[in-house]
Amino acid sequence: MTCTKCGEEFELDDGKPGYANICPNCSVPTPEQKARQLAYADSRHKSLTASQRTNERRRDEERKQDLARGKLGYKKVPGKKFTVREPK
Ligand SMILES: [Zn+2]
């Protein structure tokens, strides 16, 4: 196998992480690349959990509002922003 990055011949190892056509030397990320990848993954993870938490809170809030509406005899109209009073 010839490395597409440096052109060196190398033995292809089945368990090698990374690209199959890049030698082990070239597939090792530099400390800078590693740090950037880690920082990126970390920020992604944080933003994901933050938005997930926001979604959770919003869903919880809506559930509470639905309950309160139900107690007051109000019904949420699906697809509409406003509520209507249910005739009793
Ligand atoms: Zn190489």
Describe the structure.
The chain has 88 residues and is mainly alpha-helical. The chain has a domain of 56 residues. A two-stranded antiparallel ribbon has the order 1-2. The termini are far apart. The structure holds zinc ion. Zinc ion binds next to helix 1.
Please give a handful of descriptors for the protein shown:
about 90 residues; mainly alpha; two-stranded antiparallel sheet; 2 helices; about 5% strand; binds zinc ion
What's the arrangement of secondary structure elements?
Layout: H1 24-27, H2 31-72, E1 74-76, E2 83-85
Antiparallel strand pairs: 1-2
The structure holds zinc ion.
Zinc ion (ZN) binds next to helix 1.
Strand order of the largest sheet: 1-2
Structural class: mainly alpha
Major pleated sheet: 2 strands, antiparallel
Low-confidence stretches: none
Considering DSSP H and I runs of 4 or more, what fraction of the residues is helical? 40-55%
Instruction: Spell out which ligands are present.
Output: zinc ion
Arithmetic mean of pLDDT: 82
The amount of beta strand, in percent, is 5-15%
**SSE run:** HHEE
Distance between the first and last residues' Cα: 79 Å
Strand tally: 2
